[in-house]
Design a protein that fits this description.
Layout lengths: L4 H4 L7 E7 L20 H15 L2 E8 L3 E8 L1 H5 L3 H11 L10
């Protein structure tokens, strides 16, 4: 059963978290696919660039990472000081940088 992030993450306990993601159905994230033989090595730079971009928007620091052919690992740190220093407007701007806003937002 899935749990909400607020039930899994406790900055008081530790600001560091290990995240992992794995490809399924014989898919390859990087390297050369065993079935198709197609090279996916170009994705490694794209994935790292995405993490870097997200770290600039979110109050999360990427401490370390490992990108392998079928999965990746991230060591993340929640930057509580950075998060608490954001104004409501800055939070909204960062959210809008990642997600489209409701049409009412654009009427203002």
């Amino acid at each position: 059963m899935t749990r909400a992030s607020r039930q899994q993450v406790s900055v008081e306990t530790t600001p560091y978290y290990h995240a992992i993601n794995r490809c399924g159905r014989r898919a390859f994230l990087c390297g050369e696919g065993a079935v198709t033989g197609a090279s996916c090595e170009h994705r490694k730079g794209w994935v790292v660039a995405e993490w870097t971009g997200l770290a600039g928007v979110l109050a999360i620091d990427v401490c370390a990472y490992a990108v392998m052919s079928k999965h990746y690992h991230l060591l993340l740190r929640i930057n509580e000081g950075k998060a608490l220093g954001l104004t409501d407007e800055e939070v909204a701007q960062r959210w809008m940088a990642l997600f489209r806003g409701h049409p009412l937002v654009f009427r203002c």
